What does this fold into?
Amino acid sequence: MAAFLKSVGFIFALLAVIAVLIVIPAAQFGVAGNWRVVFLSISYFVFFLGTVWRVVRYGQLASRQEDRQVQATSGRIASLITIVGLLSVHWLSLYTFSFQYRTVNIAIEQYLTVTGIALICAAILVSQVAIKTLGKFFDRLTIKSDHQLVTDGIYSLIRHPIYTSYILLFLGFCLMLQSLWGFGLLLIVCVIWFGNRITIEEQMLEERFGEEYQSYSQQTKRLFPYIY
It folds into this structure.
């Protein structure tokens, strides 16, 4: 029952985040009724349902204070930049979309829309698979007493598939809204956000698992198979 109530609370928090990132700016800029905006809002909700599933099945996530990124000064700075940056990416993308979507070449618009949808669908799939593969170890940056190094499934290809799914989701968002400025800002935010978080996470895992993690790192890429 407690887990159910917490999951309900998380869903309301999720709806609030979607409202701040998409619904409110879309209404402000007069594009709330556009089908792309509706699709993106629904997609964000579905994307984050993986976290709800995890909370219902395994219980509450660790507290924010236990997160290694929050504990580090560089991590707190990166987190602040990420919050402000992602808010700016979404509002800027919706703003530019509000006055240019009627004038973009139809062929280009269709290509960007289809590509954006494909990336978002891939993001949802990668996220759900990664979260279910991690199970109870999907959490904030913490090490549990019974922590195990997960290297099977999608983790046999890349070490941070959940971060990959975020990148795909936000990239799809910018492409669907045809926002070059949003895309440029997103690149900066992702470099700061994931650059810092991955560094902290990999140091943490190497401290815990030593040579096992070093060997795993040598056999896999961070975010994209065969690339990086």
Notes: Helices lie at 2-28, 35-58, 68-71, 73-100, 106-134, 161-176, 180-209, 211-219.
